[in-house]
């Protein structure tokens, strides 16, 4: 009851401070700064009172909770073989098996990622050789510079496609790792 009364008075003080703030803005310019400073100081003090009240309420709540827990503990009757003393081995075993399965899945995922990366490297070497041979043949045939630029532009675009595919693959691997573990 006392706490509620104190809270009501603090709320009343806050509403009065809001009115004071409005009135301080209507003061003459030479007194306005001083009045505003005083209102701000009062607000600061009331906020400290509000915080102190909350701290008191929190400490009281903790004390009451500790008392309830103490009473529950003292009122509890213990038996020789209580059912709460069982060890959940089945749940732990199942959790361990799930972790092992996820670990194996991750190893397989990393292995497949490594083989894909090796395949991409091999394709890169093959494509570089092919590109070089095509350039040599094109130079032999005397293709125009514009055709050569188009081929180089296409190779540049293909590089971005490859990098984009690699990024998407990495994102998918990350999401799989994130949601499987």
Instruction: Please report the number of helical segments.
Output: 4
Report the C-alpha radius of gyration, rounded.
38 Å
Helix content: over 70%
List the domain count as a whole number. Answer: 1
Order of helices and strands: HHHH
Unreliable stretches: none
The chain-level structural class is mainly alpha
Largest sheet composition: none
**Overall pLDDT metric:** 86
- Quick one: overall form? flat
Taken as a percent bin, the fraction of beta residues is: under 5%
Quick one: how many beta strands?
0
Distance between the termini: 52 Å
Write up this protein.
The protein is mainly α. It has one domain. Helices cover 88% and strands 0% of the residues. The chain is built from four helices and no strands. The protein has helices spanning 2-24, 29-75, 89-141, 145-180. Helix 1 runs antiparallel to helix 2. The two termini are 52 Å apart. InterPro entries: GOSR2/Membrin/Bos1 (IPR027027).
């Amino acid at each position: 009851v006392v706490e509620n009364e104190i809270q009501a008075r603090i709320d009343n003080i806050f509403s009065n401070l809001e009115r004071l703030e409005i009135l301080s803005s209507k003061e003459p310019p030479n007194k306005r700064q001083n009045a505003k400073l005083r209102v701000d100081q009062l607000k600061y003090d009331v906020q400290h009172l509000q915080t102190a009240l909350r701290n008191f309420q929190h400490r009281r709540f903790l004390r009451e909770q500790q008392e309830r827990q103490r009473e529950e503990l003292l009122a509890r009757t213990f038996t020789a073989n209580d059912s709460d003393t069982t060890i959940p081995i089945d749940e732990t075993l199942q959790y361990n098996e799930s972790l092992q399965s996820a670990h194996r899945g991750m190893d397989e995922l990393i292995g497949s990622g490594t083989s894909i990366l090796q395949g991409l490297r091999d394709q890169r070497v093959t494509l570089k050789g092919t590109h070089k041979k095509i350039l040599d043949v094109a130079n032999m045939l005397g293709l125009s510079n514009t055709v050569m630029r188009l081929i180089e532009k296409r190779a540049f675009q293909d590089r971005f496609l490859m990098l984009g595919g690699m990024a998407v693959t990495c994102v998918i691997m990350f999401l799989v790792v994130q949601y499987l573990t």
